[in-house]
């Protein structure tokens, strides 16, 4: 790419980063004015949608003028195209998005929008919308599939287990997460990690904690009923096990779910590598699935389980939970990062971390400082 074209895209990126929400809102306003029916495809509150849209466009403007990363960008855009089918996006809608983007870019750039700038930006947006449209049109599997809730129970006041059955093929790998829409929050999609691997019976299980301000998680924990139909889109995530290296797993809260699915899948094999999982919560009574991990370990000598809690005792509202001590599981007090680092050296292990963004970042940083190669540490953005 010529230096002038590179500078144009970099300058445009700087301009839209000045007010990301206004940029995204203006693009959507232009889209809805071109095709008012498009508004029906989106939720009433679009703050999350606008933020996600801006991050995509910002990423495109960052990578296109760069020296590398183009192949990864194409795959990223293709996946977005396949994903957007779940909203009801049709091939012709990409032309509307293209028109709205070019119009807004011209307005943002003002006097900088000349013929050369227009050509550069047009090519970048034609690439973006063209790849997404092509991937959507050639996707091999249906955009959506459904499953029915057959069981739901609350473990604590803010934590629930939901089990579902589907007749559809389960096209995801153990450790991946799925895009999910629940009937209580139509048109709103969230990522949830199955706690069991795909199976011929079509069974699904999710562990969901209601987080403050989380409308979907709160609805799942508080309002889900047997008979509800959930919709699912694509599977994402890259957590996996390499068979020739010992494994360190670190699970915070419901981040246990994808690692649990991997452990169940590993328990079906005779050659699974030695694995040590650290499972942590704030209170010991919140280690809701510790008994399941203990049962897996009892028949799989390659698995070691360590429970971690920041507090030594439970508050009054946590009752009827087996303690780590009663299960015969090692119990450490402190943060997950402290417990892992103090338990030994892990530089020869592959590491999988799942939990809150803060826990993942803190633990990852501590491990790198302790000598673990960053390339051997796996984590997904969501669990």
Architecture overview:
Helix 2 crosses helix 5 and helix 11 packs parallel to helix 12. The strands form 2 sheets. Strands 4-3-6-1-2-5 form a 6-stranded antiparallel sheet, with helices on one face. It is globular and about 75 Å long. The chain has 3 domains: 3-138, Globin-like (Orthogonal Bundle); 145-236, Translation factors (Elongation Factor Tu (Ef-tu), domain 3), CATH 2.40.30; 247-379, Rossmann fold, CATH 3.40.50. By secondary structure, the chain is an alpha/beta fold. The chain starts with a helix and ends with a strand. The longest helix has 24 residues, at 115-138. It has helices at 3-16, 20-34, 47-63, 70-83, 93-109, 115-138, 215-223, 256-266, 290-298, 324-327, 336-342, 357-369, and strands spanning 145-156, 159-165, 177-181, 190-192, 203-209, 229-236, 247-252, 275-281, 303-309, 330-333, 350-354, 377-379.
List the SSEs and their pairings:
Elements: H1 3-16, H2 20-34, H3 47-63, H4 70-83, H5 93-109, H6 115-138, E1 145-156, E2 159-165, E3 177-181, E4 190-192, E5 203-209, H7 215-223, E6 229-236, E7 247-252, H8 256-266, E8 275-281, H9 290-298, E9 303-309, H10 324-327, E10 330-333, H11 336-342, E11 350-354, H12 357-369, E12 377-379
Parallel strand pairs: 7-8, 7-11, 8-9, 9-10, 11-12
Antiparallel strand pairs: 1-2, 1-6, 2-5, 3-4, 3-6
Pfam family, one: NAD_binding_1
EC number: 1.14.12.17
Domain FAD-binding FR-type: 142-260
Name of the level-1 CATH class of the largest domain: Mainly Alpha
Q: What separation lies between the terminal Cα atoms?
A: 38 Å
The helix-strand sequence is: HHHHHHEEEEEHEEHEHEHEHEHE
Q: How are the strands of the biggest sheet laid out side by side?
A: 4-3-6-1-2-5
**Average pLDDT taken over every residue:** 93
Find the CATH topology of the largest domain.
Answer: Globin-like
Report the radius of gyration as a whole number of Å: 23 Å
Helix content: 40-55%
User: β content, as a range?
Assistant: 15-25%
Uncertain segments are: none
Apparent shape? globular
Count of separate DSSP helical elements: 12
Give the total of beta strands: 12
